[in-house]
Specification:
Length: about 525
């Protein structure tokens, strides 16, 4: 009922706001249930108060109406949302922005990019300030806000104010985000099918409770004994061994493991060769380190042997977005996985500030996490009939070498869509692109520039997955193979090192001869065909 009222408020708002499209100050008078607003016109090229943008980004931002909302759908809620509306040259569309991690931050960079491209746009902190998960401690309504409520409210409020400002609703609405934002994207498609026409979901953290359980399991197993810790100087040793074993299997030795499912690397092959098996050396792994690597690669199971999450794929161990950041840390205990595992079970599940991963038990704690938080955080539902039935289009993408969220989890969701809705329905409205050599939402040795969430868009559907989504929604042009680029040279002077095709799953790129730096030398082929 609340969403319906919000969605139609543009017909009920003050006559002053509706009678004067383009009147930014009047938007503060638009009544939004449970919310208060302020609005101001931000001149072109100006960095608004409290907004942080990358160097030089403000120069490309046109004048826009900035609306700030404090949304309190419950007495325990405190959701901060911003809506930015181009003062001129609106393209008639709305693009919602998502979040990463535990959220707590509005993505001003993506909002600035959207406004510069002519979109009305919005972002939200999902109900708390800062990324510390302590916000969830003794605040069940804030968990709901983070899990699903804030993004939906943001969307309805943005459409309402867009209609008031321009005199018409957006012709098309899009959502594009990665990681937790990918989870938010699937929540929108599953629970609120009328919110968006096109959704771009990258590396979706949809199996949230399973991901946090797997992180805790890895932390306890790899840090439980000092000899099991894999220090940062051993990561390049492991990565080089993986490349030696698997890189050339696709016919091209380029530092990229093209389809890591075909990589059967055994870390025991680089175990230190000493009589007692315990000697350490810079160019090999101890038995404890080999055991840790096997745990990271392995399918995650509870104590009864039931699978609940795939393991990490080989090929993305090295680099600033690799294992040291997400799994192993530059020192013991200093990795994102430790932060997420401790924070989630301490503040979300057990509501106990004294809880630590030392107390973790896979079977017990996964069951507790699902019982207490899955209804608000998980996005497993493969029934998208309502979203697809109204013409919605969904594109999923995931880096094959993502160390934070296993790519095979997104494959599993895509296959569940097929099983639930049938091949014809999914083929007509959903695509999955798996990116060789890409880590979590970007980075890694592969061709990772293809216009996904958080990057610039060129308006070319061949090279830009977001543009491809728009053309699918607006012109019924279904996307096929895309072309991704590997860029070097920094932000100011980028150059293309090589290009690769991004193939609609289940197809994968296969080299057929020619210049190995050119995507045209590869074809999209379904393995086994």
């Amino acid at each position: 009922m609340r969403a319906t009222l919000l969605a139609t408020l543009f017909l009920l708002t003050s006559s002053a706001a509706l009678a004067e499209p383009g009147n930014c100050p009047a938007l503060a008078k638009v009544a939004l249930p449970g919310a208060t607003t302020t609005s101001e016109l931000i001149p072109a090229g100006t960095v608004a108060e409290g907004v942080r943008l990358p160097p030089g980004a403000a120069a490309h931002v046109p004048a826009f109406c900035r609306v700030r909302i404090t949304d309190r759908p419950t007495p325990d809620s405190d959701i901060r949302t911003e809506i930015w509306l181009p003062a001129k040259n609106w393209n008639g569309k709305y693009r919602g922005q998502g979040n990463g991690g535990f959220a707590g931050i509005i993505d001003y960079s993506d909002m600035a990019a959207a406004v510069a491209e002519g979109y009305a746009t919005a972002g939200t902190d999902t109900g708390h300030a800062g990324s510390d998960p302590v916000f969830a401690l003794h605040h069940p309504e804030k968990i709901k806000d983070f899990g699903w409520r804030a993004v939906h409210d943001m969307t309805v409020q943005a459409k309402t104010l867009t209609a008031a400002f321009y005199g018409s609703l957006p012709q098309h609405s899009y959502f594009a985000s990665c990681s937790d934002g990918g989870r938010e994207a699937l929540i929108e498609a599953q629970r609120f099918p009328n919110d968006y026409d096109g959704i771009l979901a990258g590396a979706p953290a949809y199996p949230w409770t399973a991901l946090m359980t797997a992180a805790a399991m890895g932390v306890k197993a790899t840090l439980g004994r000092p000899e099991n810790y894999l220090p940062p100087e051993k990561i390049p040793v492991l990565a080089a061994a993986v490349r030696a074993a698997c890189d050339a299997a696709d016919g091209v030795q380029d530092g990229v493991v093209n389809d890591p499912r075909a990589c059967h690397f055994d870390p025991a092959t680089i175990q230190c060769k000493s009589p007692d098996g315990m000697q350490d050396a810079p160019n090999c792994l101890t038995p404890g380190q080999v055991a840790s690597v096997n745990i990271i690669y392995a399918t995650k199971r509870d104590n009864a042997g039931h699978e609940f999450l795939p393991g990490a794929m080989p090929g993305g161990e090295e680099g600033p977005n690799g294992w040291t950041t997400w799994i192993t840390g530059d020192t013991p205990g200093n990795a994102s996985g430790v932060y997420y595992a401790n924070g989630f079970f301490r503040d979300f599940v057990y509501q106990d500030p004294t809880w630590s991963v030392e107390h973790f038990d896979a079977t017990r704690d996964l069951a507790a996490a699902r019982a207490k938080t899955a209804a608000d955080l998980d996005a497993y539902n493969p029934n998208l009939k309502a979203f697809l039935g109204r013409g919605g289009r969904l594109i999923l993408y995931h880096g094959w070498n993502d160390p934070a969220i296993p790519a095979l989890s997104t494959v599993a969701y895509f296959e569940a869509l097929h099983k639930t809705m049938g091949d014809a329905a999914v083929d007509s409205a959903v695509r999955l692109y798996l990116v060789p050599g890409m880590q979590h939402c970007g980075g890694g040795p592969g061709a990772t520039h293809f216009g996904q969430a958080g990057t610039d868009h060129r308006g070319d559907a061949q090279h830009d997955v977001f543009t491809a989504l728009e053309q699918w929604v607006e012109a019924s042009k279904a996307p096929g193979a895309l072309t991704a680029e590997r860029l070097s040279g920094g932000e100011r002077k980028k150059s293309v090192e090589f290009t690769r095709p991004l193939c609609p799953y289940p197809a994968q790129p296969k080299y057929h001869g020619g210049n190995t730096a050119d995507a045209s030398s590869f074809a999209c082929v379904v393995p086994g065909h």
